[in-house]
Amino acid sequence: LEISQKEGYMADLAHMIKDEVSIPVIGCGRIASPETAEMILTEGKADLVGLGRVIFADHLWVKKVINGEPIVHCKPNCDACLQMVMRQKPVICVSWDTKRKIKYKNMTKDIETPLLVLKDYFEMCKVKAAKRIFKRS
User: Fold this and answer.
1) Residue 32 gets which letter from DSSP?
2) pLDDT at position 113 over 70
3) Partners of 26 in beta bridges
4) Mean pLDDT (the chain, rounded)
5) Is pLDDT above 80 for 133?
6) DSSP secondary structure, 41-82, as one string
7) Of all residues in the chain, what percent carry a pLDDT higher than 70?
8) What's the number of CA atoms in the CB half-sphere (13 Å) around residue 10?
């Protein structure tokens, strides 16, 4: 099991930093369960907890924890969202239900066209600037 797949795997690092600084420290690193988040805080390993992919997988995570409802978990060995980010593609969590995935894909289509137009415009500006520079040389 890779270390990054272990729940709360960076809590000890946050604790080491907290021992050296006088500002609040945020602990993160696959904090998937409320029990792990609470342990990090009560043991003083961090002042706050960062919930990145956990909230992305289930945007109602906090509400569900408070109400004792089942949580949709991020799959530790997945990394599909990270792969999409690296390819500069719209990010969809594999843990989402089909309805949410479709809704999000449709939303990204609405913003994709203006973004492509902007990208083309910037490329055109770079080409014009490069031509001006070479004319001066």
Assistant:
1) -
2) no
3) 48
4) 85
5) no
6) HHTTS-SEE--SHHHHH-TTHHHHHHHTPPPPPPPTTT-HHH
7) 88
8) 16
Cβ-based burial of 117 (10 A; exposed 0-12, middle 13-18, buried ≥19): exposed
Mean pLDDT on 11-39: 95
Q: Which residue has 């409320």 as its token pair?
A: 34
Contact 58, 72 (CB under 8 A): yes
- CA distances for 8 relative to 11, 25, 33, 63, angstroms: 6, 14, 9, 20
Spatial CA neighbour of 95 closest among 43, 60, 131, 134: 60
Reading the block at residue 13, the tokens are 């690092």
SS3 string, 113-126, reads: HHHHHHHHHHHHHH
13: left (phi over 0), alpha (psi -120 to 50) or beta: alpha
| Gap between the Cα atoms of 100 and 104, Å rounded | 6
Report if pTM > 0.70. Answer: no
Residue 77: the pLDDT is 81
